[in-house]
Amino acid sequence: xxxxxxxxxxxxxxxxxxxxxxxxxxxxxxxxxxxxxxxxxxxxxxxxxxxxxxxxxxxxxxxxxxxxxxxxxxxxxxxxxxxxxxxxxxxxxxxxxxxxxxxxxxxxxxxxxxxxxxxxxxxxxxxxxxxxxxxxxxxxxxxxxxxxxxxxxxxxxxxxxxxxxxx
Length: 167
Prior knowledge:
Elements: E1 40-44, H1 50-61, E2 69-73, H2 82-89, H3 105-108, E3 113-116, E4 130-133, H4 144-165
Parallel strand pairs: 1-2, 1-3, 3-4
């Protein structure tokens, strides 16, 4: 019949964290920087908040230098949300030069795992790519205090994800 392949979605419960202090070392990567099949994709709708924070925290906290976190969105915005740039600077991560990227099937084929945050139904299906879905609130149009809570939830989930998967 043609059209898009069927969608696949898995959900896992990861408990909400308590806020913690971050390592001041910065690490961010863009999808254009040659992803490899062991890399981890963090995806949300606009690639302007949750996925940008998740990729940055993954790159900060991972222990395997050969694996990197990248991010993309199913309907990318034109820039990272200003409140997200502000709250990430508070923990030593500068997202000011990051640009939202479109999540395509081709890009999804370059990673081993896609962690979705709000875009599960619209993410491309790629055989052999593990899909993990995290229900995390979008920081768009949130106050700085509300966005900080979301940031801290994402960072703790990233730490747990790295520990569970030995990244």
